[in-house]
Amino acid sequence: MAIHLLHGCAREWAGGQQIFRNIAPEAALRSYLRARSSPYRAGPPSGPGDILTIDDSTRAAGHAAALARECGHHVRLFVNAHQVETGEPYFFSLLNACLDARREARVSYGGEVYDLGQGIDVFRRAAKAVLSALTPEAACSHVAEIGELLNCSAYALEEHAQTLSRRELLNLVDMGVTIENHGRSHQDIDSLDDDVLRRDVAQTRDWLGAQLNVHAMEYALPFGRTVRHRSMIGELAEIVYLVGPTSSQVGRNVWTRIEITPELCRVAAA
């Protein structure tokens, strides 16, 4: 049994660009899904067979979920309510677009100097550490400041990085995609106290019920890990998912998933 994770796919995929980070090439994903000897299944993680999960409220995620259904697989899509309600992009999508449009080779950020050639991933991790703890509004504002720092006065957000609408999610529900809970806005849960986190998960579950008429009883942690809430995450939903190097049960109702996007990207690049 394996629990696999994707963050979506794109038809016009271009390796090496930040905006395609964690996104699989559509052709590689389609070939993989068609070649599987047994389909991804529904049901709890403890059963036989593999499970496919997809995270985020992006069109890339929705496209991958629709493709999985087209190829005969069951799939769970974990979405964030804020992005669907507002249409605002994720901060990491904006950050990736800024990095691709950068016109500076070196920048000073947070008291450190970063080489944006070989050291671009180091800079991205530093920026992401700051941005992930902020509210969506504060994160988007800070990305704008980073854009000025990178001297990228204009950039376009690729279609796959744009957010899903409520209508698009309802269409996915009609296709048989299972919609589950990824939290209100993808803010790092270690920046929230226990009570705020509980409300975040409960309110998102209620929103999914009211807006999509789905009974979402599973929860996938934004960014896939926690230090602060490790002892209580099992309280948040019937099934809780982390991300790890393998897929396994790590608590009574807590499971880790393994990201399969890197392998799909390697196949496409070969």
Explain what you see.
The chain is of the alpha/beta class and 270 residues long. The protein folds into two domains: 193 residues, TIM Barrel, CATH 3.20.20; 60 residues, no CATH class. Helices cover 38% and strands 16% of the residues. The chain is built from nine helices and eleven strands. The strands form three sheets. The protein has a seven-stranded parallel sheet with strand order 8-5-4-1-11-10-9. The chain has a two-stranded parallel sheet with strand order 2-3. A hairpin with a 2-residue loop joins β6 and β7. α4 packs antiparallel against α5. The two termini are 28 Å apart. 41% of the residues are buried.
At a glance:
Helices cover 38% and strands 16% of the residues.
